[in-house]
Amino acid sequence: MGVAKVLVVGALQGQLQKGLSKINKACDKQALDIALIVGDVFGEGESADAELDTFLSGGITLSRPTYFTVGDRPLPAKVIERLESSDEVVPNLRYLGRKGTLTTSEGIRIISVGGRLIEDEALPVQSLGKYEPRFRDQEAKSLGGAHSAHILLTNQWPANIARLSNIEVPEGVDADAGVQSLARLCQTLQPWYHFSSSPAGAWNRELFKQPQEYGSLEEAKLTRFQSKASVDHGKGWHYAFSIDTSKPPSADEWTEQPFLSGSPPRKRARPAEYDKPSDRDFKERGGGGRRSKRPRINPDDCFMCMGRENFKDYLVVSIADHSIVTVMRGPLPQPKTFPQLSFTGHTMIIPLFHAADEAAHGLRTREEMSKEFTEMNQYRKALNKMIGAKSSGELGAVCYEVNRTGIRHFHWQVVPIQAEKIRRRLVDGAFKLAREKYKHEAFQDCDPDQLLEQRSDFFRVWTWTPSADPVERADQEANGNGGEGGVTTSMFFSIPGNARFSVNFGREVMAGLLQLEDRVNWQDAMLPNEAEERQAEEADAQGLKDDFGDFDTAMQ
Predict the structure, then answer these.
(1) What is the Cα 362 distance to its own chain's centre?
(2) Per-block mean pLDDT, blocks of 10 residues, the chain (556 long)
(3) Looking at the structure, do residues 200 and 344 belong to the same domain, yes or no?
(4) Which GO terms fall under biological process for this protein (predicted)?
(5) Which helix (H) or strand (E) holds 256?
(6) Which of 28, 146, 211, 379 counts the most CB atoms within 10 A of its CB?
(7) Domain identity same for 408 and 486
(8) 294 is a domain residue
(9) How far apart are CA 468 and CA 88, in angstroms?
């Protein structure tokens, strides 16, 4: 987790004295930490050459780390000569490379693609040096393996970025000249900020909502796209902002993602149907001409549906009549956080029912919901018993649920924690403080074993501490028999339909209690290498199977 103040500026195009002086002035005045340049830094012609010589001789300096990549033009030979022996042209002017990734000391993850797309795919890859202002589609695609980014820098625009926007593109800027592979990269990385270059004029798009990759584990990410004008243009050439890696951008207004349906690298939800705010966020679910009854949602659009073609079934540890137990992708605990367990400890209880189906087929009966709740609650108790037994009573457990109209697939998450923290009411206190911080409604106590009267729009949490009776604990440790034991409490608060609420609320509270604040975002907890991440997930699932076998209610 980190916080930084960032300055982003457009192309300097050889006007180093003017541009770098403005960067220094802005950084000093606003106490900014780093600067990023999109587009061409260096120019052509006698005047640009003279400024470059002055710059290289130390006549122009930079007060903050300033990063750049290649724009439309090749880098000058004098600059390349400097970069052959260092990643800095001069102190604090650092080259990001033609393409690549960077994580700053503040923890800001930056991914960049410089140059222009090579239209001729027959050109051999080896002909592209690290300073050339060109890139191939495959190179942009490969950067998607980084999984996520706080900031994406591209010299060219992504294809269709102006679609669904009500903001006029400035004269002289070709909105139709975007690149499809950059659109796919933006969809894959889901950056918080995407900056590009348009020397003829700045264009700041409305925020747009990215389709969420993994069901509803996180609130859908918003991306802010801005294209900066050149320093010579003046208006709209720079943008300063603060970024906190633990708090994704939020907004009351945004558009759907602009990229056409053929763009995504893999199947995603259809944003036009179910990624909109709940009706109550937008005049009670659906105003304005929407049909009263929609077709059933395709399971392929939900990443928690077992019927989905590419469902990650290796994560599943137990299957019952109405629900399943899985390990968590991007778990909050690290592998060594709870050495008493054979896995990270973070599990999910997911109902087989697809919540979005109610929009098409009507509300389920209370009896149907009760059967599902009872089975999920049995799973919760079994996981509690396992955690208590494997830790010899040292660990308790917290289970939380976000139930919100519009979420496609509800689920519960279970996270171990030191039992003493629950007994000392530190866990309850942390949830109540967070509730107060975000000005949510007050918590109400409820029966841990009962379905709530309200069927939706609430946050609920259970806490459990193992029994202090050594005989009961010994029986559980031996064979998993006996009741849940210990002490269980539950509380909830309602979420009004027009209220802003992050589905990350429970994980954020638990991250603070476990001192794992840098893992609040599940994507930040994943390994950068896709193959290694898959291997880690499979190992985590096997560890849960080993620990849970004697406690699994579906096997009894």
Answers:
(1) 32
(2) 89 96 95 97 93 93 96 96 93 94 90 92 65 91 85 97 95 93 93 97 95 54 96 91 89 87 35 32 35 38 50 82 89 96 96 60 77 94 96 96 78 96 96 95 97 92 87 55 76 90 92 94 86 92 94 78
(3) no
(4) mRNA splicing, via spliceosome
(5) strand 255-256
(6) 379
(7) yes
(8) no
(9) 61
C-beta neighbour count of 356 within 10 angstroms: 21
Nearest to 389 by CA among 333, 326, 425, 341: 341
**Structural domain ending residue among the three candidates 244, 267, 299:** 244
Question: Which tokens hold the place of 259?
Answer: 């990229």
- Residue 341 in tokens: 């367990």
Q: What is the pLDDT of residue 294?
A: 35
The H or E element that residue 462 is part of is: strand 458-465
Token pair belonging to 400? 């939380």
Residue 427 CB-density burial (10 A; 0-12 exposed, 13-18 middle, 19+ buried):
buried
Q: What is the residue type of 427?
A: V
Long-range (24+ apart) CB contacts under 8 A made by 540-544 are: 540/327, 540/331, 540/335, 540/343, 540/344, 541/314, 541/315, 541/316, 541/317, 541/326, 541/327, 541/343, 542/343, 543/341, 543/342, 543/343, 543/344, 544/317, 544/325, 544/327, 544/342, 544/343, 544/347
**Separation of alpha carbons 65 and 110, rounded Å:** 14
Are 320 and 221 in the same domain?
A: no
What pLDDT, on a 0 to 100 scale, did the predictor assign at position 536? 94
pLDDT of residue 200: 95
| 3-class state of residue 48 by DSSP | helix
Residue (of 513, 355, 384) closest to 449 by Cα position: 384
| pLDDT score recorded for residue 276 | 33
> What gap in Å lies between CA 437 and CA 414, rounded to an integer?
23
Q: How is residue 84 written in tokens?
A: 């052959």
Cα separation, 491 vs 442, in Å, equals: 10
How many domains would you assign to the chain?
Answer: 2
What angle in degrees, to the nearest 10, is found between the helix axes of 470-479 and 366-390? 100
For the chain, give percent helix, strand, coil, nearest 5.
30, 20, 50
Domain that residue 162 falls in = 3-244
- Are the beta carbons of 29 and 57 closer than 8 angstroms? no
- What is 92-110 written as a DSSP string? TEEE--SEEEEE-TT--EE
Integer-rounded Cα radius of gyration of the chain = 26
- Asked whether residue 153 is domain-assigned, the answer is yes
- Partner residues linked to 415 by β-bridges: 398
H/E/C letters for each residue in 147-174? CCCCEEEECCCECCCCCCCCCCCCCCCC
Distances (CA, A) of 296 to 261, 300, 357, 403: 19, 12, 6, 20
Reading the block at residue 126, the tokens are 């080896």
Query: Domain of 62: which CATH number?
Result: 3.60.21.10
Q: Are both 439 and 539 inside the same structural domain? A: yes
CB-CB contact of 539 with 335 (8 Å): no
- Asked whether residue 234 is assigned to any structural domain, the reply reads yes
Helices 366-390 and 530-548 pack at an angle, to 10 degrees, of: 90
pTM higher than 0.70 for the full model?
no
